[in-house]
Amino acid sequence: MEGNPLFPVFLKIDQLSVLVVGGGEIALEKLEALIKNDPKANVTLISPVIDSEVKEFTASYSSVKILEKEFDQIDYSLFNIMIGATGDRNINIQLRDKAKQYNLLVNIADMPDLCDFYLGSTVKKGDLKIGISTNGKSPILARRMREVLEDILPDNTQSIIDNLKSIRDSLTGSFKEKLKTLDKITENLIK
Ligand SMILES: C[C@@]1(CC(=O)O)c2cc3[nH]c(cc4nc(cc5[nH]c(cc(n2)[C@H]1CCC(=O)O)[C@@](C)(CC(=O)O)[C@@H]5CCC(=O)O)C(CC(=O)O)=C4CCC(=O)O)c(CCC(=O)O)c3CC(=O)O
Ligand SMILES: NC(=O)C1=CN([C@@H]2O[C@H](COP(=O)(O)OP(=O)(O)OC[C@H]3O[C@@H](n4cnc5c(N)ncnc54)[C@H](O)[C@@H]3O)[C@@H](O)[C@H]2O)C=CC1
């Protein structure tokens, strides 16, 4: 197949359990990405050494737990998703094996060959969220695309969504009839 075969989804990470392994700069970046999307993200971070920046950041989020332990001193059946950020290929391979053993989806920072999924760049304006992926080929392009989209999306995006939601809630009739009305209303919305 031509192009990017990755299947995009938007996860409810307050209802899922995410394990972050590692306590350095990259672990902090991944943690920030999770929390930026959902301050109630259900995250456990494990590492024998945890940077003070990580501790300070996590202190304000009650749904984030930190454990000063080795990666193998925890029950993996408690988690749905794992993000590895140890920087050690040997440990990362063991992490991937653990993830497979316990059926967790796994992302290992900067090691695409060990990942089940990649993190993307995300643009957020209120309830609108756009995920960007380059199929792992150029993260910097994903970042640049995010910057462009952040600039061009109108500031009133949320009020447009709110209006459309109240119209949607007020519609009656069949699925087809509702779709026809919404199609008509939004025909010239983005031009
Ligand atoms: C495969 C993937 C796996 C994953 O980590 O999930 C991956 C892998 C790697 N990234 C590397 C480097 C950089 N990554 C960034 C930035 C981001 N990287 C992200 C995702 C992904 N990175 C996944 C694919 C996403 C896709 O499909 O496009 C973003 C989108 C999301 C996020 O990380 O949260 C975030 C932008 C967020 C934003 O700002 O919007 C920058 C730029 C910067 O930091 O400003 C650089 C330096 C410039 C460059 O190299 O391009 C390296 C080489 C490391 C080395 O050389 O040591 C690898 C390893 C390799 O490619 O082999
Ligand atoms: N720092 C950066 O800006 C960038 C880093 N990278 C790569 O990302 C990886 C991670 O980078 P950093 O976070 O900066 O490294 P780091 O060395 O600060 O963090 C690694 C973390 O893994 C933890 N760790 C080690 N053994 C462990 C174990 N057995 N169980 C649990 N945790 C364990 C350590 O305690 C430490 O907190 C490295 O491969 C690095 O080359 C890639 C691009 C940029």
UniProtKB/TrEMBL annotation:
What pathway or pathways are given for this protein in its record? Answer: Porphyrin-containing compound metabolism; siroheme biosynthesis; sirohydrochlorin from precorrin-2: step 1/1
Keyword NAD in the entry? The reply is: yes
Instruction: Using the record's annotation, list all stretches that form the Siroheme synthase central domain.
Output: 126-151
Please list every transmembrane segment annotated in the UniProt record, as residue ranges: none
- List keywords of the entry alphabetically: NAD, Oxidoreductase, Porphyrin biosynthesis
Q: Which InterPro entries match?
A: Met8-like, NAD(P)-bd_dom_sf, Sirohaem_synthase_central, Sirohaem_synthase_N
Instruction: From the UniProt record, list the reaction(s) this protein catalyses.
Output: precorrin-2 + NAD(+) = sirohydrochlorin + NADH + 2 H(+)
A Gene Ontology molecular function term for this protein is: precorrin-2 dehydrogenase activity
Q: What class of enzyme is it?
A: oxidoreductase
Q: State the superkingdom.
A: Bacteria
Q: Quick check: keyword Oxidoreductase in the entry?
A: yes
Query: Could you mention a single GO BP entry for this protein?
Result: siroheme biosynthetic process
Q: Which Pfam families match?
A: NAD_binding_7, Sirohm_synth_M
Its Enzyme Commission number(s) read 1.3.1.76
Could you identify this protein by its name?
precorrin-2 dehydrogenase
